[in-house]
Amino acid sequence: MSDMTDAKRRLVERLKRVDSATAGELAAAFALTDTAVRQHLESLQELGLVRRLEGSANGRGRPAARWQLTAESWSMFPDRHGDLTVDLLDSIRTELGDAALDRLIESRSRRQAEQYRTLVGSGSVAVRVRRLADQRTIEGYLAEVIRDGDDVLLIEHHCPICSAASSCQSLCRAEMEVFRTALGADISVTREQHVLSGDQRCAYRITAA
Questions:
Q1: In terms of domains, do 16 and 107 share one?
Q2: In which band, very low, low, confident or very high, does the pLDDT at 198 lie, cut at 50, 70 and 90?
């Protein structure tokens, strides 16, 4: 984040260590003025990283507001879930074998396809692909739909499971079947670009079968 200064980052890290804090408490911790801290907190609030909690009345005067991190702030801290996923896939392959890993992926793919199928519903090819793209964007794929003559292109500009897919390419193969099942038997899906093949994105050409 371009607006994330060292001072703001220190405030975020401090709030990570406590449940909540007032501007005065944060100012004392970093030898800053209350005004400077409030300005930083208001900027962090605009970024969606902190929220303001109204303080409880305790004696005279207006209770001091407390500040707390939001779930959006978690992205600023190390996240090893990708490494954990790769380690789990490797452990399953080592302990149970490739066949067992393939069965697990197939089971997951069936559940995912059923979920997508319910979300996609009926309608034209473009309508169904748009609904699928909306769901994929929610999941972090930055999906986009482009018309190309009679065809529709589903383009995914980001792969949030790239580390896992690099370790286990069965995930990518299963994904193709998930799309075909979700979009319906009257639709053909062909992958034209693939991140793991060196492309910048994954792209799928979708046509009426």
A1: no
A2: confident
